[in-house]
Amino acid sequence: MINLILLLVVPAIGILFLILKKFYDKLPSSEIIVLSAMVVNAILFVLGLIFGFSGFNVNINPSISFSFSLQENFITIPFLLLAVTVPIGIFLFATKEIKQSKVIFYLFYLLVYVSVISVFVSSNLIVFFIFWEVAVLSLFFITGLWGDHEKGKRAAMKFLVFTQFGSLTLLAVFILLFLYTGSFNFSVIASKMSLLPSYIEYISFFLLLITVMIKMPIFPFHGWLLDSYYYSPSSGTMLLSSALSKLGGFAFILFGFGLFRNLLFDFRLPLIALGVFTAIYIAFTASGQKDLKKLLSYSSMFYMSLVFIGISSGISLAVAGSVLLMISHGFIITMLFGVSYILMQKTGTNETEKMGGLMSRMPLLSFFFIFGIFASLGVPGLSNFPGELLIFIGSYGVVGISLIAIFGIMLSTNYYLRVIKQSLFGQLKKTFAGLTDISKNELLFMVFLSFFILLLGLFPSLILNTLGGL
Amino acid sequence: MLYLILLPLLISAVLIPLLGERKKLSWLISLSAAVISFLLSILFFILYFNKNILESYTWFSFSNFSFSLSFIGNNLTLFMALLVSFISIMVLMFAGFYMKEEKHARFYAEMSFFIFSMLGLVMSNSLLLFFIFWEFVGITSYLLIGFWYDRDGPAVSSKKALIITRIGDLAFLAALVIVFSTLKTFSISSILNSISSIPMTVLIILGSLFTIAGLSKAAQFPFYTWLIDAMEGPTPVSSLLHSATMVAAGAYLLVRLLPLISAAGLLNLIVVIGFITAFAAALLALKERHFKKILAYSTIESLAFMFLAVGTLNAGGAIFYLFTHAVFKSMLFFISGGLAIAFGTYDVYELSKKKLNGTWFTIPALIGFASISAIPPFMSFFAHSALTHNFNVSENIAFVFVAFLTALFSFRAFFIIFRSKTKKPLKKEFNLFFPIVILAIISTVGGVFLYFFKGIISIAYSFDIFSFIALVASLLGVFISYEFFYLRKKQQLSDKIKNIAEKIAGYGYEKFIIAIGNAISTFGFYVGSFDFMFSNAMSRMAESTFILSSKTREIENGDAFRYITAVIIGLVAVILIAVIFI
Question: Which of A286, A316, A424 faces B63 most closely, judged by CB atoms?
Fold first, then answer.
């Protein structure tokens, strides 16, 4: 049995070493520290899959039932898979991207990493909330300090204001739950949900919805998305889209589907309608983008709105599909943002119209770009397809309008193919004649992510089998 | 064990890129994979003859829903596998001639994957598996059409092909979702058994979605434009796409689901669409100069014939015509490719100047074009008799006109290309010569297959009065095009016909499609700007909190006197309120 605390201790040791490195130069380089911490964690995770995970519990303040307790719940394992693997890939990439004050960046990076894992495994709501906040704040610093020189700070501020508001509503939900059940422990709360008066239940459900809609994000709370995705450093954007946005989906499933299932059932029609509207709206928005990074940001939101449709339908089949889609999307969008960063570095522009014919100079990059786009479009055999299928089947059983979201996939096909045509196909522009293909490091990053995209696409049961408790 | 048929091509698709760019080897690997598949298809055809073998595998399951993938081995599916693998061998041989100068690894890997997907498609019994291969076929065809990605033409047309066929793919996906939600199964055989339990409205929606899927894949009206542009791809790709794969998949889907389509009451609609497509394609082909595009229009028309058969509940006729068409159409594409390699052009008027009559191409080309026009004794005449078996009188009359136009446009191409005589023989290359000859022989004597075809799918044929009227109309068409385009008589009249065709071409359908595409982009741009404003409004709100905070900061300036004043004012206010209200 692998104790869950180990998954937190290893990165914490990594953080400690990074701090110590300030004083002792003899320690191995900071990249090696971070990477080895994450790799050890991934190995621990694999061992845990084989031998099982055991919980961890330390009482801190019994009077308010504040205990540092970690326990796997019904959706932990897939999210842990995402949280321990994708950051390794992103890190391979970040070592090249980040040039200034590396060590501090790595510190924040590990903080995001450890807090995302902790959110997924914590069973005490206070611990949950603390790490939720740490993740947001670390990302705030990453965006603000390493992002775009002019607009990075503003974007970070906007991100903070929005997500802090979401965090506050989440905190309010937790406090309401504590007031009526007398506990912060998830399983205790789940067993005592009947104690909540119905109006409190309504209030907490809507507060939770606000949190989720800000975090995922869903219309009309997506105002922060473009700025923070666009002006973050690319590794920050990857973290945002692959890990942070998944926190919202995770909270929605854990609390919305786990605790407030009856309310979710009552409100699933308007919620699905909202999800469908967001999907179509954002697919149109993405169609109008000329800038690759903006387009990818919006398309990331499109897939999160499909996830929202799946969870709101409140059927375990669709929720399982949402989990699958979130995990798969985490890998795919990381890869696509990686490609967009490399293209930006090599061609000096983010606008696809100004590229052209790059495939003849960069066959490897083009291969992975097309691979990522096809995966994104839900080609069978790649990881998005099973998730989308389950979401549509599940939500169609609730209400037929969910199928309108398929039209959004049509729009995605349109803009993604436009991107391929403008950037990769066509005649090579003379200014790009000297371009070189991706480096070994970047190739490793791409292969690493495509391995998971292919694995989950071919064997979705790997994830579905862990979701028996839905 | 049916997956064994697919395995060689999958292995070849993975192996070739791993081996890298090795000229002959990639070709040999893919060709031998296709040959092995062909032999395995024969083996299974014999083994499973008159049996109905289901092989089911569970892909994944959740709670009590299981998503299973299943193959079915019966006479029809294995015959289709035979046909696909046979045509693929021919095409790959031809590719060995046509693609000598190109990069091999990518081409043959994609071709192998394409054939693999098509073989999987014809043998699947589960709609889910059908859809998976359907998508593979679409995606690979996109990559193959865009093989010359650095040219502007293929870049545009590959995108167009995938976008238009993707409409059908997503209609298919929606149908898949609806089927599974209503019946909790993907198996085609059990779906067809439980049609009566589906509510009528759902049935109509399902039928329409499947029909849209079939129409878009088979390039029928209103989706036909992608197929014409797809001619930008390499010729082996065109010949594979146009014969037994890709477009045929659309007709094949409807054949497999025929009871569902007919229960949904869509047959008449399909017949009408079939006739519209056939007329439009035949007329548009009349003004075309590009050899491959003429063949593309003829493909669209032939597919329309299959849809006519489907619409008249004549699955046997559709499948037999599919077989016939696959044989002669791939041969015609080989001829066009052979001419293009020899003379460097696809333009029929340019080819006309090269003095081709008398070369070894003439006879196969004659067989091919006569097959398009369904002239006896070639195989397609017999195919037509099966095709039109269920037609009623009005359909038969309409078909006579189509037959006339078909003969007109096909022999126009033939007479233009092979107008001038030559004595100089052309070089025969085995990889080009062999497939053409084999296919020409089959197209000539293949009519006899009709009498054995009952074992594969129930088929009825009759040589009634209308098939002879249609034949007379075809011969009239041949005669007229001989007069106009070979002897060049009555130029005015032929110009007039051309003008009519051009008017039809210029009715702006193409522009309409492009306009829709542009409208989506423009609309998207406005939505994007709206979203930008919307987000900015949000930041204004966020900023207003900062302004508020800067105001409140002024209060908190650490001046003890102000604090005390504030406290006193507050106290007074509280006391006043207390006094007034209590």
Answer: A316
